[in-house]
Records
---
Amino acid sequence: MTELDGTPAGADQLRPLALTNYGHFTSLRVEEDGRVRGLALHLERLARDCRAVFGTDLDTERVRGLVRRAVPAPPDGPVVVRVTVYDPALDLGRPAAPAAPRVLVTTRPAGPLSPPPLRLRTLPYVRDQAAVKHVGLFGALHARRAAQLRGADDALFTDRDGRVTEGPTWNVGFVDAADRVVWPEGDVLPGVTMALLRRLHPHTTGRVTPADVAGMRAAFATNTAVGVREIAAVDGTALTTGHPVVAALRAAYRDLPGDPL
């Protein structure tokens, strides 16, 4: 399903995303009961980022209606919905022109929550405008490719100060020697799943470097599509899988009732 403002989108309308690639998005998981974990946070993100990217407000209730239109009720199975906000008329040479952002909704089948653990390779990378979930994914995907070419499943970013920050499309958390959840400090995309878990489980925020990872009991990645995913190794250093704190986080996230579209 690919709809722009509620009607099927053609090549001419999608071409600006490939050629200009200026916009922002959020991805949300709709379960079989039609409910979405953190729906209000996804809508808040879209409104916040629309002001940052286009300098204009976004009607989030209209967005909600467009998502509802694109998802069967009830869906045949879990669905990942991506809501992309962009202006097909935006000119590459004049991005400061008044914008009229439009809403593109695409859907795809969702995989299982908590897929197999990840093996990661640390790589230096800082996303442009880290607090905005924008469509400029080249740098992040290039890092993911580089990590995979070196035998890992994905990349784990470090910033200019040598701190571990996040992954290409997910946030990262750790369980320290005292069984505390530690979210690394630094400029990261404020993920919806991470925000929900912070509400559900005690945590702290602190500096984490690649050298610190060896002293951690466990680590996990979070995003909307997969929930809480274990991390099995970082730069060849093995981490515990099946840790009870990570299991508790996964269960708490899975059991969230969510909100109806």
Note: The first strand starts at residue 2 and ends at 4.
---
Amino acid sequence: MVTLGNSWDRLLADEFKQPYYQRLRRILAQEYRTRTIYPDMYDIFNALRYTDYPAIKVVILGQDPYHGAGQAHGLCFSVKPPTPPPPSLCNIFKELQTDIGMPIPQSGDLTGWAKQGVLLLNTVLTVREGQANSHKEIGWRTFTDHVISLCNAREKPMAFLLWGGNARSKASLITAPQHLVLQAPHPSPLSAHAGFFGCRHFSRVNDWLMSQGETPINWAAIGE
């Protein structure tokens, strides 16, 4: 039984009982027994655990977890020290430096963002070691689409940052007019120069949050 310790427990109680999720659990049990799977099973739901539903100010959607040792810990784009920031995260930091003048941090741990109300949600929550997208078809996308729909249904506005084709494909789930939706290419080195650099999403989100009477995100607050 998944226990998140906040309002997600109530919101997702019925979802965890669905047949597709029960099948997903059985697949994961077998995968964790027989293969190396990331993140650690106790970190799978960290995005929801660290950012309670009423506290969400910003949603950043990733694809699936990093598939190398010591990287994934349940928050999209984030890595725990001493793992150096991977290339996509380095490009996120470069855009932050250009956008708001933030010094590029040495740590890639984005827990500090999550604790301020940034939901760092991958659309697939687990992966086999060395095999990107290996758990794409086991049921996670049904689950995370439901999470995105719950966010869309919240009356209090939030901002959605959709970077890259996978995240942008979720725009159809975000229909409520009170929310801010910003889209850009993925921060991967393969696409960052096609429009992620210069998107200024971080300052735009903070300007919008202040227009809503909300405290802006301190993007420089990296780490625990």
Note: The CA atoms of residues 12 and 136 lie 20 Å apart.
